[in-house]
Design brief:
Helices cover 40% and strands 17% of the residues. The strands form three sheets. Strands 1, 2, 3, 4, 5, 11 and 12 form a seven-stranded mixed sheet that branches. Strands 9-6-10 form a three-stranded antiparallel sheet. The protein starts with a helix and ends in a 5-residue tail after the last helix. The protein contains twelve helices and twelve strands.
Length: 334
Amino acid sequence: MPLWFGLSACKPAAPKKQVVVYSPHGQEILDEFGAAFHAAHPDIEFVGRFVSPLQVLSQLRIDTRSPKIDVWWGGTSAFFSQGVAENLLQPYRPSWADASKTEYHDAKDFWYAQFLQVPAVMFNSNIYKVEDIPKSWAELLDPKWKDKIVIREPMDSGTMKTIYSGIIWRLGGAEHKSDAGYDFLKKLDAQTKSYLPNPQALYDRIGKSSEGYISLWNVTDIIFQAKANGYPFGFRVFEDPVPLSVDPIGIIAGAPHSEEAKLFYEFVTSKENCVKLAKEHYRILARTDISKDDLPAEMNAIQFQPMDISFEAFDKLQNEWMETWRKTIRNPEK
């Protein structure tokens, strides 16, 4: 056999197409939308990993010189802003960018919010009626709720960091005056029975205990756990303004499969899939071009008054506020 023929037969195979997505949205959502994406793009392998936003950041820092992740799907703006500050994300302007409010995306297109997280009081509907539950921030401090409040460990939770930082923002933090907010959180700490290490512990404490505990959590997850997992959860959104957190998506700087990343980004944030996520996974959508007529009545019925928050300033102050809470307010024995 001629030598040249043998060499041509050893021609390297073309690189395999794939997209690697890290997300805190849950493995069931990753599996569902990964399969749908692969069906739409059968030449692209989907690899999804269910991890927390903090774990995503940690992995991106490790992979700085040789990125292995393509898309970061879900978290809070504070985590994504940290990623931007560390040059871990690349800008991408999606096709629906004009349907995003200014405050719901990064000014330089490093991330766009797909969903909103609305905080509420979570309770056991076998024990309480909604009218029994605090309707304002101040009512959380009523003596009758002493040792009835349990909280997901705030330092490990984007949801709780947003809620606690929102309290400070509302009580003067927006003007860089944090004392009143710290005072409220100190009183709330005194009301709190315990801080729980993960969401599952929180669900079990509220849903399986007869003690009548309540908590602060996000509406989407409360509804999902009730519908999908049968927990007896109800919720009440405060009549006061509440701190929304935005739930973004972004493409990793130096993503090894950049074009595939853009395809997944557009696929999972399409109108069709946004509506599917609202109907089947109870997501509150951030974009403005989807008719309420296309959304479930249950989600349209959720009423809330958002705090007037500058996320750029809010995200920068959040770490400082939460470190102060951890070091000087939190009871370490709880």
